[in-house]
Amino acid sequence: xxxxxxxxxxxxxxxxxxxxxxxxxxxxxxxxxxxxxxxxxxxxxxxxxxxxxxxxxxxxxxxxx
Length: 65
Known about the structure:
Blueprint: H1 9-29, H2 38-54
Helix pairs in contact: 1-2
């Protein structure tokens, strides 16, 4: 796993938004985490924590559970 503290602000946001796009695809496919699993959810939480720590703004991902 990449040390997320070493990522630029833009890379951090892009990684988080990539996960959001996959969650959206899951939602549209009618499945609960058909494409995304718990590891991706855990990664998104780590990314979001770092985003908050840096004081950056993103819309939280709303998971399908």
